[in-house]
Design brief:
With about 300 residues, this protein is α+β, with helices and mostly antiparallel strands. The protein is built from ten helices and twelve strands. The strands form two sheets. Strands 1, 2, 3, 4, 5, 6, 8 and 12 form an eight-stranded mixed beta sheet that branches. The protein has a four-stranded antiparallel beta sheet with strand order 9-10-7-11. The chain binds adenosine-5'-triphosphate.
């Protein structure tokens, strides 16, 4: 009989920005071959888990009305994988799971992946499963391409679908401004749009990440800024042309660089320091080009408990 923790447990998981997102060939399994450099951001979601007779999911916070409460929620799927490990049998996962969203839904910041990673960490503790980090990473990869990174955090290169991670030497903290769009973009739709753009022309590709790696090792935001790149940006901007104005507003306000984050539509502005980030956020906000603006720093750790673990 496994021991179950009685008190609620809270885990936090970070949003991510892709500093480099090179999209390669379409694979037979429908995914594209990726080379990406992820950075975990201080913007985060929180997951609170409690022992219960059956699974129940609740959501509040940023974009809560757009988050599914049933089995399509990545949190539910994470709980099912953990319940198999816990031997919960046919009745399924026995936990109530409350999601507090800080990360916009369908924003290109991997919010659903963050929630899944936090759920793995929280249920590992609630059900005292003692799964190792590498076992959790294996479950994470089954849940989605970005979930392993949400678990590990920091700065990493991701290859394959993005789920095979290698750590990157990264010095210093970077200061970001994030512009949340009015509405979201579907990740599959953005990839389809890129395939379409590539079929009718040759949109520019971002190339190799070697110089970007050197800039990260040097810890120099000014050196890093011109090296940020995202092959999905053209597709995201085609689907949501208003992003052009948002990106311009960021650079006009003094950001070192402006990129679409992942599949968008969130735009990420790299700033020289904290003061510049505050100035850029105020100025971008005043232009009215986006729904909301937030500042964030990175890198930060991956999914982790923020309440004290149960004494063993
Ligand atoms: P990525 O950058 O990894 O492609 P994203 O940040 O663009 O993801 P998410 O916020 O993860 O997008 O949401 C994508 C879709 O996943 C949503 O439209 C929603 O229907 C579904 N979804 C499932 N679980 C969650 C969750 N816990 N939080 C948010 N969306 C979820």
């Amino acid at each position: 009989m496994l021991h179950v923790v009685d008190a609620p447990l809270v885990a936090r998981a970070p949003a991510k920005v892709n500093l480099h997102l090179a999209v390669g060939a379409l694979r037979k399994d429908g995914y594209h071959e990726l080379t990406t450099v992820y950075q975990a951001l201080s913007l985060h979601d929180e997951i609170t888990v409690r022992a219960a007779d059956s699974i129940a999911i609740s959501v509040r916070g940023e974009g809560a009305d757009d988050v599914p409460l049933g089995s399509t929620n990545l949190v539910w799927q994470a709980a099912e994988l953990m319940a198999e490990k816990a031997g919960h049998g046919k009745r399924g996962p026995r936990a109530s799971i409350a999601i507090t969203k800080g990360i916009p839904v369908a924003g290109g910041l991997a919010g659903g992946s963050a929630d899944a990673a936090a759920t793995l960490v929280a249920l590992n503790e609630l059900w005292q499963l003692e799964l190792s980090r590498s076992e959790l990473l294996e479950l994470a990869a089954r849940l989605g391409s970005d979930v392993p990174f949400s678990l590990s955090g920091g700065t990493s290169v991701g290859v394959g679908r993005g789920e095979q991670l290698l750590p990157v030497l990264s010095r210093n903290t970077y200061h970001w401004v994030l512009a949340f769009a009015k509405g979201g973009l579907s990740t599959p739709a953005v990839y389809r749009e890129l395939d379409r753009l590539r079929a009718v022309g040759a949109p520019p590709r971002i190339g190799a990440a070697d110089d970007l790696m050197h800039a990260l090792a040097a810890g120099d935001a000014r050196q890093l800024a011109p090296l940020l790149g995202n092959d999905l940006q053209a597709a995201a901007v085609t689907l949501m042309p208003a992003l052009r104005r948002t990106l311009r507003a960021g650079t006009d306000a003094g950001a070192l660089a402006a990129i679409v984050s992942g599949s968008g539509p969130t735009c990420a502005f790299l700033c020289a320091d904290e003061d510049d980030a505050i100035n850029v956020s105020v100025e971008v906000s005043s232009t009215g080009v986006c729904r909301t603006v937030r500042t964030a720093t990175g890198p930060v750790p991956g999914a982790r408990l923020v309440t004290a673990p149960h004494p063993r």
